[in-house]
Design brief:
By secondary structure, this protein is α/β, with parallel strands linked by helices. It has a single domain, classed as Vaccinia Virus protein VP39 (Rossmann fold, 3-Layer(aba) Sandwich). The protein has seven helices and seven strands. Helix 5 links the parallel strand 6 and strand 7.
């Protein structure tokens, strides 16, 4: 199933890429040793975004959903189930759009599920009626008005931003676009190595681990 989904997403993203290449905007991708990467110099995200990476992201999504037995932890089920045209959900760093596609299908009563990413690797045409996507970079500010979303979701972007960027740009932008009384959910890996030996301890000490993660505590 992951392979089929990846090919569908990749086909749609290729259409997006071809359209961008015909325009005058900077190319969204660069290629290094045969692997495709994003071409946004302000972002520290170093993983590729080709077919193999799509498969990894799909597997990561399904593992996360299985572990938590849900696509989310915030108490928004009733809100989304009751729905309404004015209920809006945002996924920041949506990648191939798996989370948005599943959520918009699970909650068709909700007015809009919108996913953003720095590269056009999400579906362009084949998607639920209440799912939309756009190319945006959170470091440049989110292109939405204040108090716009009822629920903002973001995950697995620890390494994409510096601590300063998290504090001064990313978190403030998430707060800005969320409605008063809305929910912001950020899911990130715990990068700490447990059961450390001498070498692992030196590695974690060199990463200044405590100061890096305090933002998420």
């Amino acid at each position: 199933m992951g392979k089929k989904f990846s090919k569908l997403s990749q086909s749609s993203s290729n259409d997006n890429e071809n359209e961008l290449e015909r325009s005058n905007v900077p190319k969204p991708f660069k290629y290094v040793d045969g692997k495709r990467y994003h071409n946004v110099t302000s972002l520290r995200y170093h993983l590729p975004n080709d077919g193999d990476e799509f498969d990894r992201l799909q597997m990561q999504h399904y593992l996360s959903r299985y572990i938590w037995q849900s696509n989310f932890s915030a108490p928004v089920h009733e809100l989304l189930r009751n729905g309404g045209e004015d209920i809006r959900v945002l996924d920041v760093g949506c990648g191939p759009g798996t989370w948005i596609l599943e959520m918009s299908s699970d909650y068709p009563q909700t007015g809009m599920f919108h996913g953003i990413d720095i590269a056009p690797i999400f579906p362009d045409t084949i998607k639920p009626f209440n799912a939309t996507f756009s190319i945006q970079n959170a470091l440049e500010g989110l292109n939405f008005p204040d108090n716009h979303f009822d629920y903002v979701y973001m995950r697995f972007l620890t390494a994409a931003f510096s601590t300063e960027q998290w504090e001064t740009i990313v978190i403030p932008e998430l707060v800005r676009v969320t409605k008063n009384g809305g929910y912001i959910e950020i899911m990130e890996w715990d990068v700490k190595i447990y059961g450390q030996g001498p070498i692992a301890k030196r590695l974690m000490d060199s990463c200044n681990y405590q100061s890096f993660i305090y933002l998420f505590i």
